[in-house]
Amino acid sequence: MAEFVTVDRPEPGIAVLRFARPPMNLIDLQVARELAAAAEEIGAEAGVRAVVLYGDERVFSAGDEMAELARLAPEQAAAMAADLQAALGCLSRLPQPTVAAIAGYALGAGLELALGADRRIIGDNVKLGLPQIRAGLIPLSGVRRLSLLIGPGNAKDLVYTGRFVEAKEAAALRLVDEVVPPDDVYVAALAWARQFTAGPARALAAAKRVFEAGTHGHDRARGEWAELFETEDRSIGTGSYLAAGPGSAEFVGR
């Protein structure tokens, strides 16, 4: 039984992966492992078509649990690095579309976790940043993904300085995808996720794998495209497209 992570299903097809470790939702190794375990279970559920990541209503996450990191000996850090890095990237491995609903702060490991989502929706009072450099550390999981998202120059600025970014700048950098009033963050995330509850699950998962392949995505797309011809949704989709145009298919997720 997880201590800090829960999975809710507020409506058919949507899973809400929520972590709560008051008061600041700091992410230690236990929280990271619980998130990764819950994400793996969600990823295997055929009935889940989209996933919302949500922290506390006031603070998504204020970052790394520095009290834990301060106690680590070098050999302990080396032993846990791969495990923690994989856990913080757990959303990127889900086959379903994912959205992070962010309130208050998304700092350090919290922002790294959100970077693995397909979309980030924040309140207009949110601050984001990767301040690990100020503790003599670097982000463990987010550097490559941040660089691909906002460009190497902007990514280096945020990582090297550790500075915080407010909502307006975050949107301008394309660090986030949507800015809404603070009280609307969760509702907006659900609305985005709802688009995919009746979608072609296998095709969406294939598209995610191509995006995750990065520079090898062009090659990966060939195999993923060809394999979709084995799915029921491809038959349904192409047939309905010919008969009634795009948007008319009733997909079955197989």
UniProtKB/TrEMBL annotation:
Spans through the membrane: none
Superkingdom field: Bacteria
Keyword set, alphabetical order: Lipid metabolism, Lyase
A Pfam family of this chain: ECH_1
InterPro entries: ClpP/crotonase-like_dom_sf, Enoyl-CoA_hydra/iso
Family in the record: Belongs to the enoyl-CoA hydratase/isomerase family.
PANTHER family: (7AS)-7A-METHYL-1,5-DIOXO-2,3,5,6,7,7A-HEXAHYDRO-1H-INDENE-CARBOXYL-COA HYDROLASE, ENOYL-COA HYDRATASE-RELATED
Protein name as catalogued: Enoyl-CoA hydratase/isomerase family protein
